[in-house]
Structure formats: structure tokens, C-alpha cells
Amino acid sequence: MALPPAARLSLEVMMETGTYEYQSDFARKYVAEGREEGRAEGETRALLAVLAARGVEVSDDARERITNCTDIEQIEAWIRLAVTADSTDALFG
To answer: Which of 28, 37, 75, 78 is 20 to 30 A distant from 91 in Cα terms?
Structure first.
């Protein structure tokens, strides 16, 4: 807010377009963590969508296991299995 309006607008545009790179290690660390969390949430939604599209019933316990998982590689493996799995038991092996 201390900047002149034109300078503030310029910085806001840079940050919105994704061209701004945070300078501090602190900011970079937490931005990266936020991106990974967002990616895991997206992968989780994709997994649940595949299961729903295939008519696979997802119990509350299975849904909790899926939504609590933050390991993207694990979620992606489940997505590959969900394409042919007929139950969440088959999904989890």
C-alpha cells in the first residue's frame, strides 16, 4: 500500500500472471508446498471422479484414506488401478 498506484498495479499484474518469482527461501518453500498440496487435492478429485464414473462404491473409510493421502505417486497409482478396479478393495490391493 506504500507504493504509488501505478507501481502497485504493475506488481499485482506480475504476481497474477505467474511471472513473479519470490525472492526469499521462506516464500519459495511455502509456495512450493502449497502447489504440491493443491496438486494432491486435484489428483484425489480425479481418482474419486474415475471411481464415481465407473460406479464403484466408495465407503467412508476408503474416501477418508483417499482424501488423507498426500503422496502424489500413490494417488496416481490408484488412478491407474481405478480404471479397471471393481471395488476399493481391489484399488488398495
So the answer is: 37
